Every structure is written in C-alpha cells, then in structure tokens.
Amino acid sequence: MAIKIKSTSEMELDSVKCVAYGGAGVGKTRLCATAPTPLIISAEEGLLSLAETDCQYIEITSLSELDESYRFILNDSKKPEPEYETICLDSLSEICEVLLQNCLPNHKDPRQAYAEMASATMPLLRKFRRLKRMNTIFTSKLIQRQDEESGVITQELFIPGQVIPNQVPYMVDELFCMQVDRKAVPYLQTQPDRTRFCKDRSGALEAKEYGQDGQIPNMTTIFNKIMEKRKLAHGTTT
User: Fold this and answer.
1) What pLDDT, in 10s, does the model give residues 164-215?
2) Shortest CA distance to 203 belongs to which of 186, 185, 191, 220?
3) How far is CA 79 from CA 73, 82, 133, 143, in A?
4) Which residues, listed in sequence order, are joined to residue 140 by a DSSP beta bridge?
5) CA 195, CA 147: separation in Å to the nearest integer?
6) Distance of CA 117 to CAs 70, 136, 179, Å?
7) Contacts of 166 (CB under 8 A, 6+ apart)
8) Residue 232: its H or E element
9) Which of 43, 140, 207, 217 could cysteine-pair with 157, CB 3.0–4.6 Å?
10) Taking the chain, what is the end-to-end CA distance rounded to the nearest angstrom?
11) What count of other Cβ atoms lies within 10 Å of the Cβ of residue 125?
12) pLDDT of 147-169, one tens digit each?
C-alpha cells in the first residue's frame, strides 16, 4: 500500500464532538436542548426539564434500538439538508446501565456482563463520534473518587464498568465538567485542574463558560466559537 501524506490544513472540520459530565440537577439535559437542532437519545425518564421545549428525542431500551437510532441518524446525515444538527446521548450513564441490565441475565459472572456491554457499546459510540456534518454531545453523570494514598478527591465520569468511562474522554476534542458556582450559576469548566479532567483542544473557550443572565451555558454559542476558531486557524474565513 502506498503511503499518502496528508496535511492538517486539509482536514474536514464540519462539527464539534464533546462530552459534558456533572452532578445531578446541574442542567446537563437542558444543556443539550441549547445545541443547534438537537435530537436526544435517552434511556431515562429524565426529560421532564425539557417539557416546555419542543425538543425531539428517541428513547432506547436495548442495544438493537441504539443501533437502529444510529442508522436512522446516519441516513439523515447523508441528506442534502439533514433534519438534525446535533445528536445528544443523554446520558451515557443511563444508556450503559440499561444495556448492562440486558447483558446480566446471560452471565453467571457479572464481570462478563460488563465486558459484553463495553465491547458491544464502544463501537457504536465511535460511530456516533464519526458522524459527518453533525455535532455530538455525550453527557455523563459524575462520581467522586478518593485516592487512598494522597486523599485527593477527584471528579470523574460515572458510567458502568471501567472501559467506557476510561475511553470516552479520549474520543472527543472537548471535555467539559458542568458545575454551579457559589451563586448557584451554572457553568462549563473547560480546562483541567487538580481534581477534574477537562480539555478544550480548540483553544476558543474561556476556562469557565457561562450562559447569559445567569442561565445555563448555550451550546450553540459554544459550538460557534469553536468552529470560528477552526476557520481562522485554517484560513477559511471569508
């Protein structure tokens, strides 16, 4: 096979892929609704916070339904004008928990069920990650872990098993921790610190991204900032 040298200036930059994790009630689901033309894939009855919005969603209860959802979205992405601009898996914690429950009856050893769930789910998550012309948001619950030696408490993605929570952060360029400040105003942390793993490879975002007038951050605004920075970096602005 002949080696083909490519240039980063020729990379197709048509969407943003990100993870947003945070504690209960910080607004992760409402965050998804602020993205451009979102379609939410959910495995939980936690969409009540969107009752006053007109946000479309798919509820899944099995791996086959998750795969069917992906195929539906893939077909939509190939249209001249796709119906959806952003696909939100909200949340991976609940989706993986539902898929794990489907696997458990097939194994005497629960560890085998975790392995089956991870090996079946990760390829699908990578497919969602590779969707062209569509932004992707993976949300996750948060768990606090304390290091036995140092006593340091860290905040990490709370997803069943070890494979998925360890691999998902490396699938994306943007990893945000959603929090509320001392005035109960929500924000997205985009830079890492001693206790949280965050990243913004675009370099377009503030260390703390707030919304307007004390509201939750707006993902449409955030995506626009990232894409504009990419255009400037690659000299594609008009």
Assistant:
1) 999 999 999 999 999 999 999 999 999 999 899 999 999 999 999 999 988 9
2) 191
3) 10, 5, 10, 39
4) 21
5) 11
6) 17, 21, 29
7) none
8) helix 219-233
9) 140
10) 38
11) 21
12) 888 888 899 999 999 999 999 99
What three-state secondary structure class fits 193?
coil
The torsion region of residue 215 among left (phi > 0), alpha (psi -120 to 50) and beta comes to: beta
pLDDT at 238: 47
Token readout for 220 is 């449409």
Burial of 104 (0-12, 13-18, 19+ CB in 10 A): middle
Q: What's the whole-model pTM score? A: 0.89
The b/e string for 83-94 (b: 16+ C-beta within 10 A; e otherwise) is ebbbbbbbbbbb
Separation of alpha carbons 135 and 149, rounded Å: 40
The residues, any chain, with a CB within 8 Å of residue 64's CB and separated by 6 or more, are none
CA torsion 134-91-27-137 (nearest 10°) is -20
For residue 186 the two structure tokens come to 């929500």
pLDDT of residue 2: 81
Alpha carbon of residue 155 to chain centroid: 16
Percentage with pLDDT > 90 across the chain = 71
Tokens coding 182: 């001392």
Work out the average pLDDT over 86-107. 92
36: DSSP letter: S
